[in-house]
Amino acid sequence: MGKAERTKQFIIEKTATLFNTKGIAATSLLDMTEATGLTKGSIYGNFKNKDEVALEVFRYNLKKVTGLVSEEMARESTFRGKILCYPRIYTLFDDPRFPVGGCVILNTAVEVDDTHPLMCEEVSKAINSWKNTLVFLINEGIQAGEFSTENNAEDLALQIIATIEGAVMLTKVSGKIAYMQSLMKTVENLINSF
Amino acid sequence: MGKAERTKQFIIEKTATLFNTKGIAATSLLDMTEATGLTKGSIYGNFKNKDEVALEVFRYNLKKVTGLVSEEMARESTFRGKILCYPRIYTLFDDPRFPVGGCVILNTAVEVDDTHPLMCEEVSKAINSWKNTLVFLINEGIQAGEFSTENNAEDLALQIIATIEGAVMLTKVSGKIAYMQSLMKTVENLINSF
Amino acid sequence: MGKAERTKQFIIEKTATLFNTKGIAATSLLDMTEATGLTKGSIYGNFKNKDEVALEVFRYNLKKVTGLVSEEMARESTFRGKILCYPRIYTLFDDPRFPVGGCVILNTAVEVDDTHPLMCEEVSKAINSWKNTLVFLINEGIQAGEFSTENNAEDLALQIIATIEGAVMLTKVSGKIAYMQSLMKTVENLINSF
Amino acid sequence: MGKAERTKQFIIEKTATLFNTKGIAATSLLDMTEATGLTKGSIYGNFKNKDEVALEVFRYNLKKVTGLVSEEMARESTFRGKILCYPRIYTLFDDPRFPVGGCVILNTAVEVDDTHPLMCEEVSKAINSWKNTLVFLINEGIQAGEFSTENNAEDLALQIIATIEGAVMLTKVSGKIAYMQSLMKTVENLINSF
DNA sequence: AATGAATGAGCATTCATTCAT
DNA sequence: GATGAATGAATGCTCATTCAT
């Protein structure tokens, strides 16, 4: 990794929390220089503009979550066990290994859906990938005889994702972790009923 | 309604879409003057500041949804029928009677949770009220013998709300109405299984 | 005094402190409506504009001081006694009978000298009148044999006025009443040496 | 002196007259950009806000006067000669070497005394320093046998300062330079009588 | 005579971005 | 590759003033 690449990475990491808490529009270049200790010129030397940083930060924050999920899944041998990683991990969504500021997908989706088509597409892809992972795991579980053949993988995947995202929103805005616990228990029960 | 009250209402109605699509921070006073045809001075003659407009717009947009729900519920005689109004209405969330820009609670919650404590509290109250309505309807349904006594009203209410909110986010960002339909069908099934 | 005249007087009295502490430019119409409890419309119904209020307030505040001086002088039978009223009164310049905010002439002079020719002229007249009073009293005192014939009335009048005005400024900005006391003692000694 | 420091200095010098004639509140950012030829952004890149410029301008204008005094004093060998510099210099207070707009201390003191505690403190310090200089010179003059031991340095210093400040006010507002000449002659006589 | 509501120019300040060095 | 300095448009907000009622 060359110097340029290292600086880019440095900027991304140092501003990751900023973008995920304040949002893209409300994060100013001044916020970014303060968070990094770098100058505006330096940031513009490494990125085309603020939106490009925001995009890369989104990818970075997203990878942080998907990486966490992958790690946990690797330890599980059954498909049910693998899927159960999601409710387990999101129960601890203010764990230090989680991006500060809540779910990156939710935050970004809500900010950009009516205004930033490009970024919207990026979030859409992330969701699609998440859904595909779940669909794959459910179908594999069916084929492996772990789950009933009557399950509709697509619908179940959407249900898991929607409940998790709704749970994050409810928990963050109310400050009641009990909401997250109740809802993740519900998701868990759903998965155990496959 | 005096002139002042009418102008206030006019400003709220004309900027309601603006705030619910762009968000509070990204909606500028210029946007607001263009949407209303009024001057900045006129807006500040009727509201203390932009945040006050945003707050009243939130309440206005919220009432639009709750009003729609109330109307529909009034036509239903059973508790199950009343609760089923939610998935039915949200399936048509881009109906003209719905605030443009998606779910007000979701949009506002995500923008303000880490930054605007006062507005956050307002959203929190709205969610609590929604949840209380559902808990009440479920418990009444149980007492009326409509639903099994084994239902946990609180958990079910959360599940309905979380799924709806997650569904709105997924549908808006992906543009796939099918997501909303699949998820509202799931909520419907849940309610029918009470 | 008709209703209009009474309202005018009311506005002047209620804003007198405002103008003499904040200055003309820094006193806003909002300040004025808050101080009077009247509306902007009402103020504009009684005065052509803010500057006209400021002018009348200047005259009102000025009269407050000159009135105080006249009262005190009336009690004195000698010319020396009359002139000594000035240092005596200014020693108590934060007396409630004195306009709050310090010397009206000083405050207004410094604000308007480079910018408001009309108001400047008004202040200039006030100073001239003050000086003429002093010159008259000194000359009368000379003619009455109270003071030495070697006194130059004009120069002494200026000296008294300048010292008083300088004293007000020094005392207000430093907060040290001792400055006023020392300087008024000096003026007193000067008058006693006539 | 780096570029930033040079620009700062440039802004201070170009706006010095502005602040000393119109006052702080009445000097707008537009006035400042027109006086400097720079943009608002450039001014804010070099100063935290308008008040910071005003503060530095006050110090600059003050130094202009104290510098002038120091130069003149350096040429005098006696303490009396040194003190006499004050009335001599202020007689020429519209000399080009003098800040345009009159006495910085007077102008600033009157504007800020009731409203800007921080700036008020700054003016207070300037006055204290001026008084201390005079007290020092008088006491040294006494010790050197130049002046009578009966002089009260503190009182005399105050008298000189108050008369000068009062003189500036009277002269500026009336436009009569004769006032300044008469009053500075009085101060001169006072000093010669030490 | 007074009010409530509006105007539009003006305010101080911050923004994302550029570019010579 | 990075910096410091600048830009100019945009920000939220306040101003003195007007005028129909």
TrEMBL record, chains A, B, C, D:
Residues annotated to bind DNA: 28-47
Domain of life according to the entry: Bacteria
Domain HTH tetR-type: 5-65
Keywords of this entry: DNA-binding, Transcription, Transcription regulation
Chain segments annotated as coiled-coil in the UniProt record: none
Keyword Zinc: no
UniProt-recorded name of the protein: TetR/AcrR family transcriptional regulator
Organism of derivation: Flectobacillus rivi
